[in-house]
Amino acid sequence: MYSKINNGDKSTIFTRTNSICPAPEEVLLDRVLINETDQLETLVNEKLLKYLYPDHNKPILLIACTKKEVEAKTVKLLIDLGADVRYQDENKWEVLHYAAERADYFVLKVIIDKLKERKFHLNEVLAQGSNALHILIRHGNKNSKDFVKCAKLLIDEGINVNLADNKMMTPILWAAKKDLNDIVKVILDYSRVSVDIDSHNSRGRTARDLIIAGNLYDGSLPDKGDNNNLNGIPLKEISPKGADSLFELIRLNQENDFLNCDNEMIGDLVNSENGNLTLLQLACKVGNKRIVKHLLEKGADKNKTTSGKKETPLEITAEHGFHEIFEILINKYENDDQIPQSVLPILLKNYDSPKFPEINWKLCCDHFLQKIKYNRNLYDINGTDDAGNTPLHYAIRYGDTVIINKLLDVGASLGSKNNFGFMPVQDLEPELLEAHLDNCVQFDLKGKKEKEDFTITLNYRTLVPPAKEILTPDAEVGRNSGNKELVHETEVISYMSTAPEFKHLLKHPVIVSFLYMKWHRTRWLFFTNLAFYVAFCASLVIYIFSYYANFVDELSSFQTFLKHFSWIILLITFFVLMFRELFQIFVLPKKYFTNFENYMEIILIILAGSILFIDSPSINTRKQLSSLSILLAAFELILMIGQHPKLSTNVVMLRTVSYNFFKFLLWYSLLLIAFALSFYILFTEGVKQPSANNTEGGDDDSFADPGKSVFKTIVMLTGEFEASDMNFETFPIVSKLIFVMFIFMIAIILLNLLNGLAVSDTQMIKNDAELLGHIYRAQHIRYVEVMLLGNIVPKNMFNKFNDFCCCFSFGQNLQYSIFKPLAQYICLFPHFLNYEMTVYPNKSGRIYKPIGKNQACSTWCNTTNLDKETVRRINELVQAKKEQMKINPDADKLEQEIFMIKNKLEDLLRNFNSIVRSQKETE
Fold first, then answer.
1. What domain of life does the native source organism fall in (predicted)?
2. Which of 18, 20, 156, 377 is 20 to 30 A (C-alpha) from 363?
């Protein structure tokens, strides 16, 4: 089995605990420790590289840099395979710091080279204020032959030798304090900048004092006048030190001083960080629009983060709600960029927060959605967070109808399930959903709807759950196939068919047309299943009457032929029927055993199997098996035919009336049993008394025992009293009184009550016949989808084999390798339609087939029309939208003009405030 371990990136890793095969992470660690690089490439994946080993609490790359037996080539390969060179552990140490601590020249060289390849400077990689040279001097392996060589390497690569750590001590001060004369010599001899040995001290003694006192350096020490860290130092090499003043200006919000800084210096330091934040991150955090704009103009990386602050500048701005800065940043994202997934959920969680002049999360949302409206590749609108929630989940929870409609307009799915199985549609107001469905009916507002070639486009994108990646059998360690899975396209509509507040929307043209298309994709399964079952029923009846029930002692040649032929057909269809039921049990066992009809099928299979395989049963047994099997087969055939949308109303009436009848009858069964027992007590002795001529007192023994009495009472419920056969002489008053009560309460009142209930149910069903047809069509299609897209084996059976033996490579997605062609055929999107359908309402609702689309459509798309009622409703929606446009034709134009005027007024106000501030500063 697998044990759950929390990973460093808040994801979950599962590790094997009782498998005969070693866990993948253990294999990886073993291969790394013995430098077996040949197998690493096939073994490594993203999850394994991020896996935190419990004994070390570090990922594999950090462990490799701490182990002296791991060679540089192994470290290099791990980085090339995707290991994070900027990962920070709980001590804020990164791989560079562990390599410096180990003091292995070749490993350190690999790390430095890989950092340079990724555009990271050594001076950006800090561990709580200490750079790699600090780490080497303070914690490095001083017994290593490469100890001094590593220090020289760091200095040659431009590390800041004058950086003070959190204890305000520079590397040379540490080296002098520890009497490391070789390190002191390397720093003073090889540093390309003037070394500061006087600005910092330890217990009152500077590096100069310690060097002189310990006689640690034979050469001449730098003069005190040369200790200005900025003199003669290339800015790129001392970026942290040169950027300190810039960070301080931003913290103090001194934007004029910042903007007046030397442009060349800012250009060189624009992506600098102080260990926790970049300049752009800090500017976004304090909310200074002009500094943010200036940094971006100078080339600041809009996506750059630090090891201490993983949020991008855009995410930081979204958290604080600075709408002007947000607009500047969001407009910097172009076609090839990807906006961080957490931005929109952050905005939506604060959507109803108080607004201020510079803080407005609603405006941020508007800027965001306006940006992705015309370029949806920038952001996955159906992307999820750790809880599986999409932006639409948060919009429904925190937002208003405006933001919900905007999200739906850009393609947010109503069927995206979170980790708790909750869909956005489940918390949506019916009126809002109806308005959205109206908006899904799209057409040219300026076009003339009377023209024959006038077209309507029905958009289904929001009704379909987003496709996700299909995981391979090794999903627990992070591998995936990269393919998109087929989704349950009727998930949303199926929920609507069961929710009372949404049921009426199933008659909406968008829903009706969607179900119509799905029915045409799945109806072949219905007719195939029906044909097979008709063959089963026919062969069963023929076999019973031609041979099994022994109606004829001697069989003619034709009857013999029918016997053998029907037996063969019955045998084949029996196994097909059994396979069908087993398939349904394996895919959805819970749903299968909660459906009463399936129990009828199980009993029918048992009866048919008995007829086929039990040798020489008695004639009485044969007759009983035959009668029961024919009756159950007929019941099942009626229910199966009722799955057709045009016949579903009849079956609904049968089901509803039967259910309500038995429900009320069960409630009154206590009264029926009471009458039956009363009749038994009153009439049983009278039946057994002999008559005057020494014969039995009548032929009726219906009340001879309690069981017969109950049966007789149920028969009497239908009106068959046979009162003349009852003996009222023994208890003439009581027996007649109870019998009259039975007639009035049961035969008259209860029976008429049940009949009235049946009539009422039937009339109600007829009134809602259209809606019920859509409901049962949706539920039938949903069931077919679940069957073909579900697992054909018990859900975790193969995974248990994988737990025990990793050599067993099957997984729970086995159905895709067997039934994928069938599943693809019944799915509309994206192979058959591109989430929309075009209809000609003036051509009797003919469906338009795009040129070059899947040829499977050609068999019916060009000849099939929507029904007249759906076309009528579409025309009503078109007419309503046309009327609305006539009432307010320039609404959109006026809204745009008002928005432009508002922006201009805000610009004028900002310019005026700037002029006032500059005049005050001049005075």
1. Eukaryota
2. 377
Shared domain check, 309 and 206:
no
Q: Nearest to residue 667, comparing CAs of 760, 763, 753?
A: 753
Q: What is the mean pLDDT of the chain?
A: 83
pLDDT range class, residue 18, cuts 50, 70, 90: low
- Six token digits for residue 888: 């307010």
State which H helix or E strand residue 480 sits in.
Answer: strand 480-484
Of all residues in the chain, the percent with pLDDT exceeding 70 is 83
- Residues 325, 330, 333: CA angle, nearest 5 degrees: 140
pLDDT class for 13, splitting at 50, 70, 90? very low
Q: Which DSSP category does 750 fall into?
A: I
φ, ψ for residue 836 (rounded to 5)?
-155, 165
Average pLDDT over residues 288-299: 92
Which domain, by its residues, includes 208? Answer: 2-217
Confirm if 217 and 246 have CB atoms less than 8 A apart.
no
Residue 121 in domain? yes
C-beta of residue 412 within 8 angstroms of C-beta of residue 381: yes
Query: Count of domains in the chain?
Result: 4
Contact 317, 329 (CB under 8 A): yes
| Cα dihedral 486, 644, 778, 537 sign | negative
Picking from 177, 178, 180, the residue whose alpha carbon sits closest to that of residue 217 is: 180
CA gap 154, 121 in Å, rounded: 11
Q: Answer yes or no: is 59 within a domain.
A: yes
Tell me how many degrees the CA angle 636-639-644 measures, rounded to the nearest 5: 135
Residue with tokens 């076999």: 543
Tokens of 33: 């420790």
Task: Verify that 117 and 254 share a domain, yes or no.
Answer: no
Q: Is 99 exposed, middle or buried (0-12, 13-18, 19+ CB in 10 A)?
A: buried
State whether 200 and 281 are in the same domain. Answer: no
User: Tokens for 244?
Assistant: 């300190």
> What is the mean predicted confidence (pLDDT) over 318-339?
92
Distance of CA 774 to the CA centre of its chain: 27
What would the pLDDT profile of 88-102 be if each residue is shown by its tens digit? 888 889 999 999 999
The Cα–Cα gap between 107 and 68 comes to 10
Same domain, 673 and 630: no
Domain-terminating residue out of 396, 411, 426: 411
